[in-house]
Amino acid sequence: MSKYTSIGGYKDSQLLDRVKGLDTFTHIPKGAWCVVLRSEEDISNTYDDKLYFFRGEKFQSVMTCTSNSGSHYLKNPLNSKGAAIIASDTINYDSHKRGLHRGRMEAFRQVKPIYMYRDNNKDSKVDEVGKRYLENAYTNIHTNSYSRKTGILTWIVGKFSAGCVVVNNLTKYYDMIYSVDKNEYVSLCILKEF
User: What does pTM read for this prediction?
Assistant: First the structure.
């Protein structure tokens, strides 16, 4: 899928089994939900993760993304506690709903507090260490273009992520977004690559 990610092809059953083994797991969401696999390589400023979109236990699509702050915001955090890093190996139920990111693009907006870390050592690597927070830092799920285009525009994150999950395949992203009703909650699960 990408020259920037080594994440292999996981079977639906592997992902679902991994989710079911999490401490935060209570049930498989009935509606739309996203499983993001965070690459163990963690190539700075690159779309090296994968987002798997499900409805209940039924797999819908997969696309490349980042679940990490871009290097700009790792070095220049928007919050004095540090850059937002969504905690991995955690499922956040009904955490997002369809809305606008920065008032300009269709997105799954964070509407409930989720678990995250704050990385404040100002290097270009993501660190999940220290205090774990439960907060709404508006870590949305969105794409990397404010204009409606198709295909993959870039593999460089730049300033498009200050902690959000950002998809770089616009075609697959909009197929996913428009398959979800505006009143429907979307759950988010970040997994470390396994």
Answer: 0.92
